[in-house]
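Lay summary

Proteins are chains of building blocks that fold into shapes. Our project writes down both the chain and a compact code for its shape. Here are two examples, one after the other.
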Amino acid sequence: MVAAIFASCVAPTFISYQPYQFAWDDAGYLLQCIRVSRAFWSGNVRGLGAMYGLRPPAMTWLGLPGMVPSSWDAAGRCFVTLAAVISLLAAFCLYLLLRSGVKPLFLVAASVCVFASLGPYPTSPPFYAMSFAQEQSAGHYAATAFLADSLFAWTCLAAALLIPYEARTHCPSIRGALLRGILWGSILSLGVMTKISFFYFILLIVPTLFLIRLRNAGLRSALAALASFACFSAPSALYLVLFGRLAFQNAKASSFGGVGGLYYVSLLQFLGNAIRESPGLALSFVLTVSALIYLVIKWRTLLWGSDFLALLIPIGFGAIVLAAPNRQIRYVFPAIVAPPFLTALLMSKQGDSAPTRSAALAACLAFCGLLGAGVPVQHRASIQTLSRSDAVLAHAAGCHAKRILLLTDSPTLNYILMLLALQVSGKGALIKAGLVNTLATEDRFGVPIEEDFHAIGEADEVVLQDRDKLSPPFTNRRISEYEQYLRQGGYSPARVWDDVSVYSMRCRP
């Protein structure tokens, strides 16, 4: 019964059956998935370099179970794999909670809190129809999107639960210590391969686990667990040493650097938008805070234990995210998902741990239910994602254009979506030897506009989208200058979609 309620509450927080159109980051993840999968199954070792980029590679592995992707169906398979991985993590969290002694009533209450925070009500408009404020605060949409944030949130919860699990379930043997180290390494490696900001959790959780192991089982067992953890974490550590510099730089720039400042919204405005888009956040916050106030009054000694430290870790992460200029609801997911369950453990005090078999059975039942609920998401990816990109490619193929230049940026037509269309669209194959580029970032990096004009003159085809469809504003600052340059050059636009115009600089039908 507990497993069924848990699965019913958490499933809608990362599974949705609404048609889904890719935009920016999600399109980038899908593009990398397709490239890595093709390289892997074709034995192209050099092509595996597609997993190295601005973000750690965990999301790029989602296409591997689907064999060689050759069409838009790859998007559906990647959606199913992502849902399956999150389902496995959620079921594992349930196992850790039951083994740590959470009481069923508090577990159900925590599950309801998470459902209220990230569930499907109220419904949000499609991403391309959202305002900039809605994009930053639409919790359910972000939680069910093809993004790393829900995966990251459940990984953070699993990592935080390792602390009460280690404190409450003793396993003093060396064999047990080695297995615990492997468990630590598995969860923490997945976290850091999902998002580089997981280093925050590693820096706090690993020393805590070692000290708990040292207190409960002695130095020899603690060192054995640490050695096992180090060996099992070596591949991810090696990856970060060799290829992690770009990911670190991107994380810094996106959070507290120049890129983060472009997405700035005041804290009060962000919180107001978040509550308006996800009213259940207020319910979860009130219930969690009320429980903590009760604990302070009645059981103050619990606040000095390792369980309370486990709760403080995701709360601290949330505080850091809210202190950054770039405030988006998806970045706060660890502080939304984890605190209700960790508070439930605190409220359970030193409850009786569920037997290993019973906890494993409940986790398996929850996983099967979540996995079954996740299978239909294979039909969620909408081919309308590429409608405008395909129209541009079709026009370019008719003109034998090899160099396409985007002058505008929007959720429905951008550089990444064009590259994605080249990978999976039949029309993209007609000009697969061509080159697609964009001027969306030139102003942000201080490139002189004269160089933009030179690039326009060198292109075979340039593309503009109507102004009312463009977003974000900081990637579309030079549109007036581009339009004036094209008018002065005497170029005439061809309408290839309702809101997309193409200027053929060198059209050869």
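And here is the second example, written the same way.
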Amino acid sequence: MFSLSSLVATEVSLIWPKEKVLEKLTYVGLANCYKLSNDVIELIVTTDIGPRILRYGFLGEENILGEIPRAVITTELGDWKPWGGHRLWLAPEDNPRSYAPDDLPVKFEIINENKIRLVQPADVATGIEKEMTVALDERGSGVTISHYLRNRTRASIEVSAWAITIMNSGGEAILPQEPYLSWDEYLLPARPLVLWHYTDLSDPRWTFSNQFIRLRTDSRMEAPQKMGIGNKQGWAAYHRGTTLFVKNFDYEQGASYPDYGCNTEVYTAGSVMELESLSPLRNIAPEEFVQHLEHWNLFGGVDQAADTLRRLQQAPTVPATCRPHSISFVE
């Protein structure tokens, strides 16, 4: 039985059916954007660059995703713009490979009023083709994002699909600790917790407890902070104001993950916050692909940390490959 979060398979033929009707609009200065919405949520993607999800929020309310359309990072491959929102990268991180510019139009297929497929042609730096299929639930806040990396080169490549979500500033990322077991119950380590050379655990933006790792943004503190974990619980969250964003994803026991075994990472610098999940490392032959799934939900009316934890505990049913383990949220 395979795990959908890290499927390696041979590509099938792409057939682009006649375009269906979907609201088209201009967003953050990009003229060719499309809105998916139901009675609760609206989500905006663009076909001008990417693939990118630019907006995810309750109808008429703030975007939980960050918007940074003027930011630019210059590499030997050219200028790369984060734009904000949700993107797909290659892991492990490498400069310039990971920062290959993605500012050209993408192919797209409108599957129905709640589902769209975005395909970036293979870039010359990596030979990898990036694809996202974004599906909004008919009701409620649920969104499923299927990420694909296809090998368009003539040689096998080892790669992990890296799903990166830039969050709206002013909030706090929340990562789960593994369930507590006493020395008498279990002697072996629980999971990897990975630090970067610039990680400073004395930085006041970090908060640690026996149930959670928290990292908050602070626009006055530009020094970056990052941490990665092997996350068997299958979720990561971001709490801003009274809104709680939760992403669910799979963990494959025994698989090899990037960055010393991380399937979840969190990064901040100033007002920027990135909440990230990763697939296992896979060796993909020419014309094969690796797939990685995320399932998102948004909760409103979340005022305090205790309420946040209760909402997390009551996270809705998600696909089996994205379902979090049962966990107690009593601190």
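What can we say about the second shape? The chain is about 5% helix and 45% strand.
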